[in-house]
Amino acid sequence: MAEDQQAMAEQTRIMVGEGDVVLPGDVLAVGDVDFNTPFAYRDGDVIRAAVPGVVEIRKIDRNGKDVEKVYLKPFDLTYIPRPGHMVIGMVIDIGTTYWVVDINSPYNAQLPVGETIMKHTGGYDTLRRYLDVGEYILAEILSFDRNRDPIISAKGKNYGKILDGKVIEVRLSRVPWIVGKKKSMIEAIERETGARIVIADNARIWIKGPDRRSEDLVVLAIKNIEQTKRVKPPSVEEIVDYIRKVKEEV
Amino acid sequence: MSLTPSQIPLVPKVKKDTIISLLEEGKRIDGRKLDEVRPIKIEPGYVEKADGSALVRLGETVVLAGIKIELGTPYPDSPNEGIMMVNAEFVPVASPYFEPGPPDENAFELARVIDRSFRETHAIKLDELVVVPGQKVLVIWDDIYVLNHAGNLIDAGAIATLAALATTRVPSVDKDADPPIIKRFEYEKELPMEKMVITATIAKIGQHLVVDPNDEEESVADSRLSVSFVRDGTIAGLQKMGEGALEPSDVDDMIELGWKTAKKYFDEIEKAVTSYKRMLKNNAT
Amino acid sequence: MVKKTDILLFDEEKGVRHDGRKPEDMRPVRMQVGVLDNAQGSALVEFGKTRILAAVYGPREILPKHMTLPGRAILRIRYHMAPFSTTERKNPAPSRREIELSKVIREALEASVFTRLYPRTTIDVFIEVLQADGGTRTAGITAASLALADAGIPMRDLIAGVAVGKVGGRIVVDVDEVEDSMGEADMPVAMMPGLGKIVLLQLNGSLSREEFKQAINMAIGAINKIYEMQKSVLKEKFTAYSEAGKNKQQQHS
Fold first, then answer.
1. Backbone Cα Rg of chain A
2. Residue B2 lies inside a defined structural domain of this protein
3. Are A96 and A107 in contact (CB under 8 A)?
4. How far apart (Å, rounded) are the C-alpha atoms in residues B225 and B242?
5. Core-most of A16, A21, A104, C161, by most CB within 10 Å?
6. A86-161 and A166-249 share one fold
7. Is residue B136 in a domain?
8. Total CB pairs under 8 A between chain B and C
9. CATH of the domain at B161
10. Options 3.40.50.300, 1.10.10.10, 2.40.50.140, 3.30.230.70; which CATH number does C22-227 get?
């Protein structure tokens, strides 16, 4: 047994380095190495990439021991809902007791009347007056699993119909950059523009500024971060400089 | 457009496990050995109105091939050759999963696999089927009817096709008529054949290779390889099917197993064709 | 139309094919990814004059719902030839051939894509043959696999394909239309090269066992080259980034 473990440890090695760009089928590691599914997978003794992405080597604690984990950051992601996520949805259909809501995912969500602040149900027309096709709503994923479409709720505090401001959609894989470390990026943008920014988990962003110009500034700043063509995000200073430059130009 | 089938019979995982654990002991769910084909019964001349036909039972799978010969226009790139056309119909009587309507992708695939094996090997002497050079030729229609689907339709269809073609007679043509017409049920000669061609299908289930898979085995197989052969052992076509992948060494093994199986099919067809022809001769005298 | 007698399929004296290639030579191969803005992933692949566009949409909702599967995404694959892609205009309605090729390509992609990650959805792959000059299904699956990778859909490996054949008595790689229509055999092969597994294999024509072995080995050799090209075009797309990133890191340190 001990020999087996030793043999395993000898065979265990990570074949890629921090910042490497890898593609489906590429070998990331051999042996007993931690990795993140579904972006990497195990094929016998070998761990391979399943999507194009960038490698990050993370130190993790496993049974009291520091070990390295291969973490693959994909270039592209599909949004899969999870209970508790905050999402910005767009109404695409109306039933008699619920709305069908697009949440930027392969799965459309249902918003039942009972999960809104609407008191009475009066059928299609009443629902439509409250929330029409094409309108945005800020809501929370109540439930979702492999067998049932997501149910969302707009009852909680801060949730409900989005009445003003702008909603934009960005690449899901770029959301962490837009938020920044400990929200540093988003707070800097809010400071520079005076706008309030809500980043939902489904890669939609609600921007509410004192005026249209400040909202446009936020959009430009976010698009600038999203479109940065490198592995590391731009720094907060770079984006602040960018916003100030655009302000001067206008 | 091809879609992942959603109407397929659901195979309980238990059944797949059972099939595989049996295979590990060298046995199959219907008691056969891995390289054993189901009992074959071939009845040539099953449809009198056809110019050639054969009913084939491969275990519980039943397939009927009927050959009808018509007059037609040659292809522009081969003006002095007759034409062979293969068509397959998976009629609703054959399975609860077959629906009425135009042929689906599986029927097209079956027809095209068999068609290619005969066409590419020039199995039929098409140059002997010309009526008016460049204008009128004979068209050999091979219609394959699946009557009961219990797996391995390609092999059953190929056996039925070869047995039917080998017993097909070419009707006389009234060349003086304008346009020329076929004299129905007046026969001139046997269909001129250059080569005998058959197709044998091997399924890969887990790590095991089995010949002549039945429907249960097909539903759990990772992939299948149909290999067509000429009587001398030349490979006359390949078709990989199923959602799995094959190692190159699997393919070599499947070709060898396929050839072993193909020889059995050839033997059975030759027996049935010989006795049918003897019977015709006896009836004539 | 070219007459059969006009073309010397294999010149024994010079050891070359009708277009001057040696038996093991591929035509010039070109690949691009991310060529269509609307699709989640897309690719353009050319083998000589054969030119294929592939686009991926999904995973997305599919209606009617009864077409979905509870435990996995379904794949919907359409291999289609544009009417102007061939010498004679091709009727745009799907032919028996296109239906069959859509099926074998779908089954090949099923072997690679992790469909279980997206239950009750569809992943659509559309393959349009813009110009056909032999090897369209293998160039098509090469393009489809690039488009799926471009879309970020998890898969076991890229798929690369090539058609080998027997032409004028010789086993040759990457058959073009002339060789396909006049040669003795055409054998399309596609693999997950990193895993060494065959996902598509067809043969139209006759080969001896020895010839088959030679043909499959030639195909594997060519497929590995195509695989490297696929990787380099994907890397190029994704890492104008990486290089910029690395340089930046160096500046900081």
1. 22
2. no
3. no
4. 9
5. C161
6. no
7. yes
8. 122
9. 3.30.230.70
10. 3.30.230.70
In this structure, whether the domain defined by A166-249 belongs to CATH 3.30.1370.10 is answered with: yes
Q: In chain B, which stretches have pLDDT less than 70?
A: 7-12
CATH architecture of A2-74: Beta Barrel (2.40)
- Residue C119 to residue A76, Cβ atoms within 8 A: no
- Tell me: pLDDT of C242 over 70: no
Nearest residue to C28 (alpha-carbon basis) of C50, C8, C55: C50
Count Cα atoms within 13 angstroms, Cβ side, for C82. 14
What are the tokens at B5? 């089938």
Instruction: Give residue for tokens 């006049």.
Output: C182
d(CA C15, CA C20): 9
- Cβ–Cβ gap C156/A25 under 8 Å: yes
- The residue segments making up the domain with residue B120 are 13-284
Q: Do B234 and C208 touch (CB under 8 A)?
A: yes
Q: What is the pLDDT of residue A232?
A: 79
Structural domain contains residue B7: no
Residues 35-64 of C with CB under 8 A from A: 40, 58-61
Which stretches of chain B are DSSP H helices?
Answer: 13-24, 105-120, 153-166, 215-220, 248-284
Cα(C12)–Cα(C23) distance, rounded to whole angstroms? 11
Q: Inter-chain contact C61–A106, Cβ cutoff 8 Å?
A: yes
Per residue in C195-220, pLDDT (tens digit) is 999 999 999 999 999 999 999 999 99
C residues 215..234 contacting B (CB < 8 A) = 216, 220
**C:177-206 residues touching chain B, CB 8 A cutoff:** 185, 187, 192, 195-206
CB contact under 8 A, B2 and C115: no
**Over the stretch B166-184, which tens digit does the pLDDT of each residue have?**
999 999 999 888 889 999 9
The pLDDT assigned to A227 comes to: 85
Please name the member of C76, C110, C202 whose beta carbon is closest to the beta carbon of B240: C202
Chain B contact present for C103, CB below 8 A: yes
Determine the Cα angle at B155 with ends B154 and B161, to 5°: 90
Report residue C1's pLDDT band, with 50, 70 and 90 as the boundaries.
very low
Distance CA C66, CA C205 (A): 40
Where does A86-161 sit in CATH, by number? 2.40.50.140
| ipTM of this complex | 0.90
B256 CA to chain C: closest CA distance, Å?
Answer: 9
Asked whether residue B28 is domain-assigned, the answer is yes
Q: What share of chain B is helix, strand, coil (3-state, %, to 5)?
A: 30, 35, 35
Q: In chain C, where are the structural domains located?
A: 22-227
How far is Cα B186 from Cα B179, in angstroms, rounded to an integer?
Answer: 18
Sorted by where each begins, the domain ranges of chain A are 2-74, 86-161, 166-249
Which chains have 3 or more CB–CB distances shorter than 8 Å to chain C?
A, B
- Give the pLDDT confidence of C47-79 residue by residue, as tens digits: 999 999 999 998 998 877 778 888 899 999 999
